Amino acid sequence: MTPLKMDGSHILSTGSAVPDICIDNDLLGTILETSDDWISTRTGIKERKILAQHQSIIDLATTASKQALDKGFLEAEDLDLIIFATSTSNDLFGSASQLQYSLGAVRAAAFDITAACSGFVIALMVAHQFIQNNVYKNILVVGADTLSQWVDWSDRTTCILFGDGAGAAILQQNKTNDLLSFEINTDGSEAKQLCINHKRNFNNTIGNDQLTNLPSNSHYQPLQMNGKEVYKFAVSKVPDSINKCLQKVDLNSDDITWLLLHQANQRILETVASKLKIPTEKVLSNIQFYGNTSAASIPIALDEAFSTGYICHKDTIAIAGFGAGLTWGSIMIKWHAFE
Ligand code: UT7
Question: Which of 269, 287, 289, 323 has a beta carbon 3.0–4.6 Å from 263's, enabling a disulfide?
Answer without folding.
Answer: 287
